[in-house]
Amino acid sequence: MQDKExxxxxxxxxxxxxxxxxxxxxxxxDGRLQTIDDESQKTxxxxxxxxxxxxxxxxxxxxxxxxxxxxIEAHDGTRGTISNGFGTYADADTxxxxxxxxxxxxxxxxxxx
Length: 113
Hints:
Elements: H1 4-7, H2 10-19, E1 24-29, E2 32-35, E3 43-44, E4 49-58, E5 66-74, E6 79-85, H3 92-111
Parallel strand pairs: 1-6
Antiparallel strand pairs: 1-2, 2-3, 4-5, 5-6
């Protein structure tokens, strides 16, 4: 079995997610999630995507240097990842978009209970 530290490295998590079908890279542009690794550059609203999982990583030399990698699935089956800084290092547009997705997910969970 893999050592926990090795399992949690960014490279290993990205490889595992890729093996699980999260092959696209996303970015947030004009309030929408956009694929950046293909010619189609599909875009999605917060209502059209779900955060499947997320992983937090701390910088080796500075614990405040934290980033989060999100595994995202769109309503059309497109799966990929997006990363963002945490706290003061967060990209404001990406942070706002992901918070909308999280809030929508919480509302859906409540509706089904």
